[in-house]
Amino acid sequence: MIEHEVDLPVPPGEALDWFLAPEKLVRWLCKRADVEPRVGGRYELFWDPARPEVNSTLGCKVLEYEPGKLKVSWAGNEEQLEFMEPGSTTVAVSVEPAGSGCHLRLEHYGFGDCDRWLKAERWFDLAWKKAIARLKETVGG
């Protein structure tokens, strides 16, 4: 399981908006976002909008959404798509008040244990590390 944590200088609800609002997602995570912030709603992020079938979360959904918590299904990138189809892994984000802002925790889990899954998990661990750093910079932390 991948885990990353960060403190942000915004209230918990605003921090979660950075994972839900398309206009915010494109500032730190992807090039295009189609998100319906409700259980069962779309959670489709695109890193190459000209080729939406690859390097995206096309077909992924919001699995859980309540104050301070978001859980979405996830898909692999172009290299992993053969075995890491939409919904094969899960990304969970939780936020709680901390000082004058909040503490955010991201977990990405559901990876298999064969070599190609382990390689994918290492790839996503690094990708999330970079993304969370961009989020902190973008939010102003």
Secondary-structure map:
Elements: E1 2-8, H1 12-17, H2 22-28, E2 32-35, E3 43-46, E4 62-66, E5 69-74, E6 89-98, E7 101-109, H3 115-139
Antiparallel strand pairs: 1-7, 2-3, 4-5, 5-6, 6-7
Give a description of the structure.
By secondary structure, this protein is α+β, with helices and mostly antiparallel strands. It has one domain: 2-Layer Sandwich (Alpha-D-Glucose-1,6-Bisphosphate, Chain A, domain 4). It is 27% helix and 32% strand. The chain is built from three helices and seven strands. Strands 1-7-6-5-4 form a five-stranded antiparallel sheet. The radius of gyration is 14 Å and the shape is globular. The protein starts with a strand and ends with a helix. The model has no long low-confidence stretch (mean pLDDT 95).
Element string (H = helix, E = strand) = EHHEEEEEEH
Could you list the spans in which at least 5 consecutive residues all have pLDDT below 50? Answer: none
> Roughly what is the average pLDDT, rounded to an integer?
95
What Rg is obtained from the alpha carbons, in whole angstroms? 14 Å
Strand content: 25-35%
SS content category: alpha+beta
Q: How many structural domains does the protein architecture include?
A: 1
CATH third-tier fold name: Alpha-D-Glucose-1,6-Bisphosphate, Chain A, domain 4
The tally of strands reads 7
CATH architectural type? 2-Layer Sandwich
N→C terminal distance: 25 Å
